[in-house]
Design goal:
Helix content: 55-70%
Shape: elongated
Oligomer: single chain
């Protein structure tokens, strides 16, 4: 999956692929494959890219195929001052959504039953 947010931000910043590849200590073709989504971008590389582009990580981060961006927090336990990004497989997320819907229906039914008491 093409990394559209990353590409757009890089172009807005007027930074070439060659410049980023050099800062990541890799060949331009290696970096190009990452932007095209042909090669996975590690979390460490995402952090470096955010630093290079001088943006928050969540502004450029795009999950790999079959994953969904869930949330970020401001935890300072492991990485002081940075945001943590969590992702989960889509099918697991869908299972959780279905379970939440069931629980919400049960809560609604219970509220209606107790309303008359």
């Amino acid at each position: 999956m093409k990394k559209v947010k990353l590409i757009n931000r890089r172009k807005e910043s007027k930074i070439s692929q060659a410049m980023i590849a050099e800062k990541l200590c890799m060949d331009v073709s290696c970096y190009n494959r990452r932007e095209k989504g042909q090669v996975r971008i590690s979390l460490q590389e995402w952090k470096k890219l955010a630093d290079i582009l001088n943006v928050p990580l969540d502004e450029i981060y795009e999950a790999e195929d079959n994953q969904v961006f869930i949330c970020k927090d401001n935890s300072t336990v492991h990485y002081q001052g940075t945001n943590h990004i969590y992702s989960v497989l889509e099918h697991l997320l869908e299972t959780q959504r279905k379970y939440i819907a069931i629980l919400e229906n049960e809560i609604l039914e219970l509220k209606q039953k107790t309303k008359g008491l």
